[in-house]
From TrEMBL:
It comes from Kaistella jeonii. InterPro entries: EgtD_Methyltrsf_superfamily, MeTrfase_dom, MeTrfase_EgtD-like, SAM-dependent_MTases_sf. Keywords: Methyltransferase, Transferase. It holds the Pfam family Methyltransf_33. Transmembrane segments: none annotated. Residues 9-315 form the Histidine-specific methyltransferase SAM-dependent domain. This is Histidine-specific methyltransferase SAM-dependent domain-containing protein. It comes from the Bacteria. One of its GO terms (molecular function) is methyltransferase activity. SUPFAM superfamilies: S-adenosyl-L-methionine-dependent methyltransferases. GO terms for biological process: methylation.
Amino acid sequence: MTKNDTFLKDIEAGLSQNPKYISSHYFYDKAGDELFQQIMEMPEYYLTNSELEIFSQQSEAIIESFQINPDEEFELIELGAGDGKKTLHLLKTLLEKSYRFKFIPVDISHNSLAVITERMEDLFPDLEIDPQQGDYFQVLDELFTSDRPKVILFIGSNLGNMQDEVARSFLHKIADHLKPNEKLLLGVDQIKSKDIVLPAYNDAAGITRDFNLNLLKRINRELGADFDLENFEHDPEYTEEEGIAKSFLKSTKKQSVYIKELGKSFEFAENELIHTEISRKYNDTILQNLIDDSMLEITHKFLDSKKYFADYILTK
Ligand code: AVJ
């Protein structure tokens, strides 16, 4: 099956179910990547700055928590490498302290891997870097062929897009690969009040709105659909009790949308929702629950000054 067949199949299944659903996985085409970069620049999107503060101010303590012998060569594997803005602080401190390590960024996008590799090579000519292209669920097996000790980075609250059961099996899968005393550095957003979280998913400039609606644009372009973007609204919600931000696209009127590649129409009632994303927030109890019986243990926790975001060290 080609990539587009999978997309078509997922859209058909998702729009046929009740409530309608499209995976947030499909946000990230070229336009979506660019919109997400812009979201990270929005004043309301506190996640990036909070985690950046942790990395820029506490990288020495983070490295100590790795408990790596400086004479021994190790591998720092980053799952979903992104733009490297936070990671560079860690790399800088490791190099200053003369640690011997190989940096292995893993990303599904050839383009972001090329960008991050070039950026890191420019910044750190002495850095040993070995980029790996692939879906990190899949490349995991291939990454664990060497005997060198490993530290896995999974930051940026990327875990938050997974349903708890998916997150649990992902964390358990990582745990299965790690040897005793190896680490996972997990960066996740913390549960906090609605007045802070909701604006992060509904910025005043409308970038997150465009990011969500870009899904429909993508379906129009790639699958020959006729979604009228004027007739759908970005509709996010969040409650502190649940701790999960959810994004929806709301049909503002009764309408029918035709998808040429399927030769089929889909009906929308007025105010009907398409669920497009969850962004889960965590606390120690929720995280502990996900890693129960995985052999991982929370051994350290690094917070920003506002306590909005946490980078946990999970040790096997
Ligand atoms: C990239 C998954 C961390 O859920 O906060 C940002 C994606 N969606 N605004 C998040 C996103 C809407 C983001 N993550």
